[in-house]
Please model this.
Amino acid sequence: MITALLFLFLHSSGVAAKMANDGAETAGNGKGPLVIYYSRTGSTRWVAEELTRGLAAVCVEIQSKKDRAGVIGGFTCVLDQLLDRDDEQKKPAVDLSAYDPIIIASPIWIHRLSSPVRTFLKQANLAGKAVYFVLTYHGHQTDADEKEMKTKIRSCGIDLKGIYKLNTKNKDENHIRVAAVQLATAFDRRLVKR
Model:
């Protein structure tokens, strides 16, 4: 409760770190880190925003060309997952080669990365990049689900450094943002040790 109140005070008073538009210089790594995310309902966006603030990172949204809003959009998401369909999306307006590490935030749809993020991974050249994943979900992720996900991620040539999960079921925006602030602090400590 105290953490939530402190977050709200800092966030509303402008004391919290401002979301960076151009990234912070990181010695030897070019610009970094970069937060890339896809969010259908807003939960993953809130997480990405807090990671961006906490890490003074650049933030880029994966933008699907498909209408994924409402019930019909939800049905499209389910079909994309069941049929393993790629997403139609706009090309990100950032040079990925300039950033390392990269943090990718994705919702989990039917025990897998969302179709927009899976498609992004297929199209982006992230080979050799240090990549972390932050997953938001409402259900249950088994060890087998995570093992399969790691195998598919690594098959793209990605140097997978870690997967972090945030269960957002029955949590409001404030609770999700507080959890993301804590995650950003953990990331910050881990990235400094790199």
